Each structure stands twice: as C-alpha cells, then as structure tokens.
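Hi team,

Filling in the usual template for the complex we talked about on Friday. All components are listed, including any nucleic acid strands or ligand strings, so the model treats them as one assembly.

SUBMITTER: L.P.
PURPOSE: interface mapping
COMPONENTS: two
RESIDUES: 1157
SEQUENCES:
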Amino acid sequence: MKTLDNHTILGIGNLLDYPQSPRGMWVDEAIWGHRIRLTSSIGNFQFLEFLSVVESLYRQDPAVLFADVSDGKNLTYEPRRSILLRNLIFNNAALNRIENRTLPEEEKWSGWINGFRASFQPTDQFPDFEYLRQRFLGFDNFKEHIRLLQRLSLDPNTSIRWTSRFIFPIGMDAMFTDLGKDLTREAINFKRNGEIIYLMLSRSSVAAELRTGFIKLLEASREKNKLLEKLLPEDECKNPDIAKAGVRNVPAFLPYLSHPAYDRFAKDVLALLALDLPDQDCFEFLIPLLSFHLVLFYLETARACNEKERLGAIVCEIVAPRSDQVRHASLESFASNDSEGVIAVEELLKEFFKRQEIIQIVKAAISPIDKVKEISQLFNRAPTKSWRFCWNLDENLTPGNSPEEFFREFLNDAKLEFKNKSGEIHRGLGKECGLVSRRGTRSLRYAPTDNFLRMLVVTRVRGRIELNEFLAELFDRYCLVIGHKEALRSPEIQDNHKSENPFRKNMDRLIRRMESMGLAKRMSDGCTYVENPFFEAER
Amino acid sequence: MSNRTLGQRWIQFLRGYTPTAQNDSMVTEKIGNRASRHQVAPISFEHPLEKLLISLFLKEDEGRIPRNALKNVILTGMAGDGKTALCYSLWKKLFNSKPPRGKLEKRDLNWDGNHLCINFMFDFSAFFTPRDNEPLPLEVLAFLEDFSNSVFSREAPESVYIIAINDGQFAELWKRLPKNSPANRLADLITDLHATNKQDSTHRLTFFNLSLISTRELFSRVYEAFVSRPEWEDCLAHPELKEFGSYSPLIRNLHALRSLPYKNRLHDLVSISDGCKRHIPIRELLMWMSNGLLGSKNAPHGVAGLNELRNCLTLEDAHRGALHKNLIGENLTQNQRDRFAMFRFLQGLKLGNETINDLDDLIIFGEHLGHLRDAYQSLVKEDAFQQRDPLIEHKLRSYIQGGTEDDTEVLDAIASERRRIFFSSEEKALTKALPNRSIWETTVFHSAEDYLRHLLNGNEQDPVPPELTRKLILGLNRVWTGLLAEDDERLFLAKGLNLSSAAISDIFVMGVPITDDFGETLISVVKPSQSILVPQLRIIWKLEQVPFAFDLTLERFEFLMRVAEGVMPNAFSKECWDDIITLKTKFLRHMQRAGFKLARIRTIETDSTGKLKSLVIV
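RESULT (copied from the run log):
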C-alpha cells in the first residue's frame, strides 16, 4: 500500500491477524473491527455486554482483567447465563395470576409453582423451590421482591423476547449475557460492541488502573447483589450458571494494537471511576461515554484512512431558537464527518487493488474470466495483517467477467455493506450518546443534549475550570467546537460560517444551560467557572 | 449651551447613561468630559465598599495604617461594577488630588518614615488585553511577579498594589504565565479566592469581588442618588417649557418613580434578581433609571432628547414614554435589550405576560360589574401618575363586542395594564382588590412574595414561618422520591435501586424530621448574610457531622412550592428537575463521604392517605 505502511495506526506493525476465514466480505471489519453495530437500545446492550465480559474475567481471576488481550490475543470469556433468575424475573406470568387471587398461603405457593413449571425453560431443569419458601416471610413478600426487581427492567415496555431482557446491573448476578432460543449465547443484541470496548480499554496505557477501578466497582455491588442471591439456590451462588457459546460465535476483532482513541477513552473512564460516585451512579455517565468514544474511534480511524490527521471539527450547536451560522456549520461538519467512512472504504480498496499480486494477474496472458477467478481466489482467505481485505465467495459465484468488473462489483458491494454496517456508527451511536440530533431541523447535526453535556463535565472537570479553558480542552481532546475561539482554530469550518458573534451566542446558551443544570457558575459576563458537582478533592 | 436651564442641561447629560450610541456617562473615565460639557455634576454616591477599602490604608482619624499591616488590593467584578470609581475614591483620599488619567500610576511616598511605593492600576484591560495566543509581554510579567512578591513577602512591603481588573481576564492571564514563574502562586491564590467568594487571605492580599455585593444594596444607593438630584427641582420649576410641561412623559415618570409603590416594587425586583443569583452592575442600574424616565418608543434609539420631549403634546405621546413600559425596555429593540443583564432578567420574569383571572376580570369587566366597581376604581381607574393607555377602554370595548378579529393589540394592552398595576398600586389597594392572590402571579414567580417577605427581607434572625419550611420539605419529598407523598414533617431521602437519581426513588435511605425529639431544629432556612448571598436550606442529617446545605434560589423555591401545591414535577423544564435531583446525589455523596452506609434495603411507598411507609426487603 502506498503511504500507509508506516502509519502509526494503519501501519503493518500495528495491525493484527484474524484467526478465522470469515464468510462473505471482510472490509469494514478490517477497518473498524468485528464488530461495532447498531440495534435499538444499543447503548444499553453494549454496556451490558461490556459488563458481562468484565464480570466473567473478574470471576475467572481478577488479575487477568484488562490484561488478557493487551498483546493482541483473542478475547475468550464465559459470561453468566443466570437462567433461573431470568425465568423468575422475566418469564413469570404465573406470579400475576396468583397475585390477583385470595388464597391460603400454601395454595399460593403450590399454584405459582405449578403455573411457573409450565413456562419455565429449559423444561427439563425445573428446580425445587423449597428454599424460596424458607427464605421469604410469605408468598406476598416473595412477590414484592420479584416486583422490585422487575421494576429494574431496562426498556420495560419493549416486546423483546424474555431471554434478551435485562435488569439494571445492580450486582454481579445481574451481569448476564444475551441468549438465543436454545438458551446459548447469541449475537442478536450483544453485537460485540461491548467486547470491542473491552479490547480498546485493555490496549490502553492505563489498563492496570482500570482493573483496580472496576474491581472496586464490582466489589461495591455486593451489597445490592444480596437481593439477587436471595432468589438463587446456594450451589448456584457458588457456581454460577455459565452460558455456552453458540455455533456461530466467532471471536471479536479489533484490528489495531494501539490507537490514540484507546487512551483517550480509557482515561475518561478512569476519571469517571475516580469520582467514587455512590453505588452504581457512574453507570449513568458511563453508558453514553462508551457510545461517544466508539464514535470518536470510528471517525478518527476513517480520517486516518483518508490520510487526515486527528479528528475533524465537531461543531456543536447548543440548540438555538433560530437558524444561524453555528447551525449551518454544525450541519456541514456533521455531513463532512459522515462521509469520511465511505471515502475511507473506497480509497483503501482502490489502493488495495493495485497490489503487486493482483497487478500480476491482471497483466497475465490469460482470459479475463480466468483472471477474475484467480483474483477472487486471492481474496478467498483468512485476513492477515499483510492481506487485510477478503471476499470469500462460492467458486461458482465469481462476479464480473473482467478484473475491472470484479473490482467495480467488489467496491459496490463493500460500499453497500458499509452503508448497512459501520456506516451507521456515526449517526446511530452519536444519537445514542446525545451528541447527534435532529431537534429543530430536518437533517442531523451535532446538537448535544443536556445529558451529554453533563457527561462531559462530570468526566472532564476535576473540581473547577474556567469556561474558556474547558472549551479549549474539549476542542483539543475531542475536536468539539462550541465557542468562537475554537471555531477560528478549525480549518474544516468554512470562513463564511466563522463569524465571532453567532459562536459567542452559542457559548452563551451553553453557559445558561449549564448554569441551570448546576454545572456552571457565572461570575460575570467575562468569567464563568464550570464545576463538576461530584468532584471533591481527596481529603 | 449657556442659555439652557439647569434642568435642560441635566437631561442632555442624563442621555449619556441611557442605551444610546453616546452612552459615555457609563464609563467612569469618560464621565468627567460630559459632566464639564453640560456643567452638571455626575451622579455619585458612596460605594458600599468604599469605607472598607479606605480603612485598609487610613484609620478612622485619617492616620495611616502601619506599613507592615498594609495589604494589596484587587478589585474585580463585571464591567460597570465601580472598580475604577473605587480606585479614584481611594486615590483622592490618599493624595487629596484629582486622579490621573493613566492606566498605571506609581507614587513614591514617605510612609511612617519609610519609603513606600503605591501602585494604582486603574484598569488592567488598558494595560494588557490578551489577544489570540499572544504571549505575556515582559512588562506585564514583571509587573505580576513584583505584585506576587509583595503579596507573599513576610517583610513590611516596599510596594503595595491596588488593581482593578475584570474577572474574565484572570484566566487569560494565568494561561499565559510561564510554568516556572513565581506569579503562578499568586494565580492559584486569586483563583481560589475568586471561586470560593472569599475576601481575605492569610497573605498580604484583600480581594474584593464587586459582583458579590447584593444588587439590592447597590440599587438603594443608586435610587436615592438618582431621585434626589437637585436638577429635578429645576425641571419641575419650569412647567412653561414644553419638555417639562403637562404632557411630558418625563415629568409624569419622575412623579411615578419618586412614589412609594414604584420605589418598593423596584426594590423588590432587584431583590429577586439577587435571589436568582443575577448580579446587576451599577452602570446598568443607572441605565435602568435613566431609560425609565427618558425612554420613548418612537425617539431615535428609543430614548427621548429635549426635542422629542417638546413634541409630546397629547395623551398618547405622554403614554408612549410611560415608566412602566420603559422599565422593562419596551422602548428599545430586542438587540438593545439583549445587551443588558437587567433587561435579560426582566424578560425572563415575563412580567404581565402571566395572568390572574381575578385581575383580568377587573381590567376588562370592572367598570360594568357592580361587585367589582370599588376594586376597579381603586386599582385600575385610579391613575395617580396619568400613565394609563388612553385608548385601552376603546380597545377593550371593541374586543368585548367582537369588533376586531385581531386579538394581539388588545392582549398587549391588557399585559401593559397589568404591568402598570403591578408597579403603581398601593399594597393596601392590591390586598383589597385581590384578597386571595398575589400580584406576583403576573410573573413566572408566583411565590416571589413569600420569598421576598420571609426569606430575603426582614431581620436575619427572624424565623422563617414553619409552614413555609414544611411546604419546602413536601416539595423536596415529592421530587426526591418521585412519589406523590403528603409528608411535610420529615424529609425523606430515598434513591432508586439502580441510580440514586432515578425518577422513582423507592429505596429508603434516611428520614430527617424538622425538629428532633429534643426540639432541636434539624432542617432550617438560613437567611442571606455577609457570607452567603442567597438563602440556604440546611439539613443536619446527623449530629456532629457537617450539615448538608444548598442555595435556595428563587427558581428552586418556586419549583418546590409549586410541586408542593400539587403540580407534577415534570410539568416544568427538565433543568429544574435535574437541578434538584443533582442536589440529592450530592447529599448522598456528602453522607457517603462522612461514612454513612445503608444497613438494609427497605422500600418506601405511599399509603392511601399519601403518607410514606416502609417495607424491609433484605
């Protein structure tokens, strides 16, 4: 490849092999990993998946947490299945039926057990629930306990099947994995985003500190975990119910050994953990933070492929009543960032088609059809660091009648796949974390929500910082543009959108919003302090 | 110029304080020129900090403070807070001479037999205004380092500094300091004093943040200085001049401004700006007063000069420049209003845009309905300052008779009428006409009257009525638990099983009664004092632990009051809710840091009467 061989991110020394031969095309996986995908409520799902990885490795041996994959090894872990708990919480219609009837205590229990047996899965492993009767004061007490946990259900109104439903992870027993129909692991909702997140954090320079932080977090959850343990037989408390991998489970893959996004991400997570928030309050900020950093990783990688340095300007409009230059700049910067991905796919592939091996075949004195066959054989393999892109097809299905047609088909298919896969990361996860929105416009742009702003302040501000300094840091770290000074520093913003006044007003709106959220203290027109309400200096 | 009366010259001078293009009177350094041009004295009064500032250098008997006890002084605040004016006052007192015009002045003098150099920096921005990434000039760095030496030196100082600087400049300055400069220590000290609202340090530095002085205190001085100017008497003595004649809005406005109802209402408004933590600088208060008197919708820049005043010959002309309209900036354009904190605050108040049925009944039907007639006479028809819209009755009639399809004009007129009544009515007349309602219900802050009467005004020691505290607790209980609780004797702290900020928080953490078994108050409202700017709610959650306290701004007070009255918390903006919920998380963290641990998991729910009850789970 032309200039990228020595690139800090895309250089061959920074790339990794993938152990399996994937089915179909392997292009955007080679660029952004296998895989970051989107589904509804992905923010919650990827967070739960990440936690299930962390919990299972911690259970295996706390010392391996964030240390097992740092050198490029594959991630293997055994998440919880917790089938009994999930039956009790999500597959327990019998409880509703008993609840509405006035019966003697004994009949309530037996009626519920009989009803529950009918829906329980797996049908052949229905446990003896005698232990529950001993632990609860009465059936009503048991019922209240289950109701309390049901209220923790994430997305309680969705009609998703019960093996894919989750409760807020109050304790380790609630950090279980997504299951398919046959009660084995499945990648329908757990798309591997959580695994990718784990890989990114493990390959950062602060993995050891993260280990300490997450161990503390898991230990702190023991108190609330008692609520879950009360429902489980003793032997399951000691030997958790583990989910087996399904037939189609393939390992997650993050192509780069090191990446500027890893450290940026990990340090933010660390800053959040260092706040020592009560119980699991940090999850509130961690959930959008994960999505935000996946977006940054995606954008920075795409730009690197297009031979651009760092991130491009992310112009944030603090929603204004009327359209102004900031809105135009924001719409433009969104559109420009959004197109980086597809350009990356196109550029990299075009460059790849010029490889020595391919050119030799193109120039060989054989028929065009044979050329296509030989080229497609070249692509029919497991990806390695020296041959990143693959297209595993059936032998009879070679597209095109000439190398040019083959390349065209390859490129079209790759772009199409990108559109439905990684192409969604920027807007989808951007919306999920609260950075991207359509509020007040027909097109998407960067218009951060209050929760997003709160997350930024909580993660980035240690105590107190002057607003201009805060904005400068957001720019240097994430390329977020809010104030006029940063707008002037961004080469991506067109000159006619750079006037000072609209950006000053944008900053003013930011101050007002942060002030009412208790995140800022305006001392005067010229001086505002941004304050992290949760930070307290070590005593 | 010379054949103009004193009143005429005064009006021309006063225009300099209004939001016109030539508002030079707003800048201390330029005011002298205007004053001498119009041969009137500038508006002046003693700044609340003046005595304190002078006492740092001179004793009461004007003797000098010993050299070793001298302190350096920083005067900071918003533009227009009076930094430079305070420097000038000190200069006059120390040297008994007119202050010089330069930015930095040094005076070497003999102080108790020793040499002392006093450095005055009248305006730091004239000395150095940072641009882009321009580094700190050596001259500025040297100045800061010398200043730093004087602050931290244990010896009696050879130089002291009095520096006026905008607080926005600090960060820009500190950012440019070289890492190894000794002035970094000064930067840390100043940032800390500034952000924690402290005045005194253990070092040789006194830090005055003029933005922390209550607007109410500033306003009472501005008001007195303004209305008691002798030039007004000259205006009143010349009714034969059309500008001061019977249709002159200026004269009508002056009478209104000097009246007790207006005076009280204006003081109330600036008080609630304090309660909302909006500081208004002196310059804007002067602008507010001048614009109130001289504002006129059709005049250039919205402010009348002598010519425009002379052309006021009808009732409509007089009404166009009415005080109640000018006070909220109706005479100005939106862009003009946006430039001033005062108008931004007043716009947020939506004065007159909110409504009370009883008041609207009076305005619209009062004249025609027998049982309303008395109240109508005293509140609406009684127009002591002749500022009622002369066309309002016509507008109302055609509205009632359905003669017009466009409601905007009449609705605007009614809103303006509400404002006139708000400003100009005597308290007694209001109570009589609207026995069950507060006139503050014509603003977004329906509870402002309680807030003003019980939390801001009155003696610091006067207790806040217990029913008000109970109502606050009821509001807090409802927001913090997310349940429609009826408990107002005890504060319930609860969190969600998932997040402590959960909308429905049903895991019981702690209950704090208003008074404990021994009658000791555990939850109280602390009124503002020297050290705290707005009232605070203080909760002693455990004896011998640091109590948890938070600022009870008017916004928070209003939100909690309305929730206590039965409004759903999410009927307000999410910011209000978030703000109160953040307080809960801070409270929980405060307790956690003090070693509090939840012993068991108990849920709470409301019983049939709305009282909270608890159930042990684990």
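MY TAKE: The CA atoms of residues 20 and 250 of chain A lie 8 Å apart. The longest strand of chain A covers residues 520-524.

Thanks, L.
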